Amino acid sequence: MGACTGVAGVVLAAGAGRRFGMPKALVEYQGTLLVDRAAQVLAAGGCAPVVVVLGAAADEVRERAELTGATVVINPDWPSGMGSSLRTALDALAQTDAVAALVLPVDMPGIGPEAVRRVAAHASTSALAAAAHHDTRSHPVLLGRDHWAGARAAATGDAGARGYLKGREVALVFCDDVSEGFDIDEPEDLRRINP
Question: Model pTM?
Answer without folding.
Answer: 0.93
